[in-house]
Model the fold of this input.
Amino acid sequence: MPRFLEAIEDVVGATIFYFAVSPLLKIAAALVVVLTTIAYLTLAERKILGFIQARVGPNRVGPWGLFQPIADVAKLLVKEDIVPQRAIKWAFVLGPCLVVGPALVILAVIPFGPPSDVTGGMGWHIADVNVALLFVLAMATIGVYGLILGGWGSNNKFSLLGGLRSAAQMISYEVPQGLSLVVPLLMAGTMSLNGIVQAQHDQHVWYVFNYWGLGLAAFFVYFVAGVAESNRNPFDLPEAESELVAGFHTEYSGMRFALFFLGEYANMIVISAVAVTLFLGGWLPPFANQSWAGFLSLSFLPAGLAGFFWFFLKLIAFLFVYIWFRGTFPRYRFDQLMALGWKWLLPMALATIMLTGLVKVL
Amino acid sequence: MTDPNTPSAGPETLFGLEEMELNFGPQHPATHGVLRLKVRVDGERIVDTYPIVGYLHRGTEKLFELHPFFQNVPHTDRMDYVAAATNNLAYVGAVERLTGIVVPPRARYIRTLLSELQRLSSHLLWLATHAIDIGAMTPFFYTFREREIILDLFEEYCGARLTLNCMRPGGQPYDLTVGWTERCAEFIDDFPSKIDDYEGLLTENRIWKKRTVGVGMLPPEVAMAYGVTGPMLRGSGVQWDLRKAIPYEAYDEVDFDVPVFYNCDTYDRYLVRMEEMRQSTRIVAQCLEKLPEGPIMAKRPRVLKGPKESEVYFGIEGPKGEIGFYIVGDGSPNPYRCRVRPPSFLNLQVLPEMVKGQLVADLVAVIGTTDIVLGEIDR
Done:
């Protein structure tokens, strides 16, 4: 453990340190990392979209537009916060909080790195919950209520339609998503995310490649449903700027709008992080069991940091795919998304679970 | 069609829910200007649509009566402002037929050239907005990249990029600038590969097909009953193109095909326009090749007067359909009456038929596929 942490422990005593100081420090660290990632994710998105679309992207604020996110945040913070007169105030206020809060709360259970000295022998996570997977599902569901409340509370017909769409599509993607998570659960035999990563380490396989494509099928279902859950192209129906004029957040301005925005990007990160943890080996380096690939474990880095590096790299790959989608795909219609969820993803997830169980038993 | 002024009590539907009236526009990103639609929806399903036009009314037809024939050309630019050259051509063509002026061949070829380039730029703009309405963002930037080159060509020819004012009764105001034909040929050589790029993003895209196939059905009988023209009509399987049917300018001297597709849906109208772009490049290439030498302006009086009690209708195949001018002369230098046959307006009329029973998301796709310009609808 670093010396300054030991010093704090000496001052406050072990009990307070392990129950208050240490978690708070971890929460602060996780939030700083994730919020910075979100800020630069917006920049990266605009840059990558610019690259796809034969244009430059932001380049005015700072070198290569590097300070653009800071400028954006400053702008959103000082903008006037408008609550429409006829809005249902409590729903209007609660909406954005419900979107951004749960998305960030999920971060609590995600293991960003392996156990190391920096964290006093614990994993790089805030809480190692033994039913973390259930927790993830529960929290991810709450975000949709934010959209519904925001869309309803705005007292705007377009917002209402946006909220209704998210309500309608919620069940159709969440059922297959929840079922697809059962597959890595069956493979690992634990619900703890740390445990699942550890199991992938022990079984020398990332679950996406496990069981002759069954892992891949589950991963596919999870990711498609995840894109729908984070309201990104091609499933950005609740906001659909060309149909519903931004849908549920039409009436939002300033920081309240920024919260929706933040929630969307936090959701992208969280869904990618869960996918990385469950299917892509979390903080494990690739080819860990091959002797030639030993250098990939990056042993020259301080313990834990190498794991974090791999985790982050996989996360970024996911986020790139999200942005790539946005540059390429048209938008689904909401009845088509529901058809996709019920007619394809759900049977696929169910079949995958059954086959995985069968393989496991045999 | 229900009267928009009656309060929408709405028939009781399943579960006793009531229908909602959605005011779609005039400030809406997908209405391509200031179109306003009153939409009655049951959930997201459209029960009835009522377009309300006139937010961009500028009294253009009255303005025609107040100015001499020559000075009216700029007014036509501002009707369909993304296809000014074809507007110009329809107007000057009508005036020439009214006054009996015969245009020299070089001017006819230049007009054909400009019209086809204009068709390309108009279709590119249509593709950009249509795709972005359906949620595909990227084609917008690609098409605008190519449209920019076309606008540059226009700018080099006549100094303007949108409101071209590039034709006069009797011929062309300017000859092509030095090197223009080469630059145009270079663009035209390159352009088919760009169309392949757009099609690569959309044509076989599953989501694109899901959003367009079978959406906004327009049976040929309905299309003809409503006076729909242009790609909308040809997407419904009716072979009708004024460039072939009643050739004007140099169209009977160039070789091109008229694409017709038979499924009557948004996807087929998309295919029609994509193929039309390919055919337009063919026409432009042939015009550049065959471009005759000679004068660009016919001999004509300094002041044109419409003969007493004369009237003429002249329509051409614009990018959006048949754009025509009906002009009445009374012996004065001004038209006595000038009435426009606007393709966008007539194509818009059929919108309520096309979206009935479809979803709000389809409404946006169908507005995109009708390819309207409000400057022309409201005039």
About this structure: The mean pLDDT of chain A is 82. Chain A touches chain B through 31 residues (CB under 8 Å). The radius of gyration of chain A is 21 Å.
